[in-house]
């Protein structure tokens, strides 16, 4: 697994800070955000693309692609995948992004407006389009099987992981690089979500992202990426891989309800969870942890809580947390870093907290991990992602054991 996030630019740092309950939300430093009415974001800090990509290659990519390639190279290095043990024709790429190269789009539209269309960069299209994270990862990894991109708003990365899992399960590939990348903490990204009144206007970072809290006031925009190396069990064992966890189920549904609001009944999200659990061949009471979508908007948290209750029952002991309380909402990359968080929870027998919670909303009756990470030996966990457009995606994971 490879990770770039508001709480760490590699997987080890991300997991350590996650379990320590570190807040990655800070005052916006990338630009003067005062005119937007938004003060805080989950910015990636001290990221140097040259470390893994090199200066020349980095210059020809939007920031979201830089994040994607950086995490893919970390994941490949950790996995020990190379051309000696993996045929390039057996390795594919599916990377999700909600928006793609928004930084490039903003820069080039401003340039066109100020200096004319002839001054638009010839690299505008190849850096801005939403499939280019996947394309760049495939080039760096020499992955010659399927290479595609998933764009399902905030469900993008979880859909990508699920579809990559299916490629392997159906025998179409032996290895898949999958996850999501997003870099939307810029003027147009903040302004757009602010205009939707979706973002928290809190000025205190500690009070800005409060999933399931009665005083929540909207989500905090985050950025980053994560890439997971998935492979068939046969391929992994043949090359002596250190296996971190197992993907055992995937569910994807649509609310068909509204372009931005989730179905308040939670029915669509519930069906996605049920599908992932059914494919895993288990019952709901075998799931020990849910990494919730938990955006800290009133509509999402209430609807998701209802969905969890529909699947697991109102008296369920399944533990729940939203790690967006620490990272903010990474949009199309959210499901990727949350998959890393879920696998780490299974590995460590420790569940990340839903930090900052002071007053749980009575309309969100779920069993939250609050304040501190909680020890819990669990075998199965699920990660939920719910996106604009009614997209619901859930991946089920199992703790690895020989």
UniProtKB/TrEMBL annotation:
- Which example biological process does GO assign this protein? fatty acid elongation
Enzymatic reactions? (9Z)-hexadecenoyl-[ACP] + malonyl-[ACP] + H(+) = 3-oxo-(11Z)-octadecenoyl-[ACP] + holo-[ACP] + CO2; a fatty acyl-[ACP] + malonyl-[ACP] + H(+) = a 3-oxoacyl-[ACP] + holo-[ACP] + CO2
Which Pfam families does the record cross-reference, listed alphabetically? ketoacyl-synt, Ketoacyl-synt_C
**Gene Ontology terms: cellular component:** cytosol
Q: What class of enzyme is it?
A: transferase
CDD domains in the cross-refs:
KAS_I_II
Q: Which domain of life is it from?
A: Bacteria
Give the record's pathway: Lipid metabolism; fatty acid biosynthesis
Molecular function GO terms recorded: 3-oxoacyl-[acyl-carrier-protein] synthase activity
Positions annotated as active site in the UniProt record: 154 (for beta-ketoacyl synthase activity)
Q: What does the record give as EC number?
A: 2.3.1.179
Residue ranges of domain Ketosynthase family 3 (KS3) in the record: 1-399
SMART domains linked:
PKS_KS (SM00825)
Keyword field:
Acyltransferase, Fatty acid biosynthesis, Fatty acid metabolism, Lipid biosynthesis, Lipid metabolism, Transferase
The UniProt function text for this chain reads: Involved in the type II fatty acid elongation cycle. Catalyzes the elongation of a wide range of acyl-ACP by the addition of two carbons from malonyl-ACP to an acyl acceptor. Can efficiently catalyze the conversion of palmitoleoyl-ACP (cis-hexadec-9-enoyl-ACP) to cis-vaccenoyl-ACP (cis-octadec-11-enoyl-ACP), an essential step in the thermal regulation of fatty acid composition.
Sequence similarity: Belongs to the thiolase-like superfamily. Beta-ketoacyl-ACP synthases family.
Its name, as the record gives it, is 3-oxoacyl-[acyl-carrier-protein] synthase 2
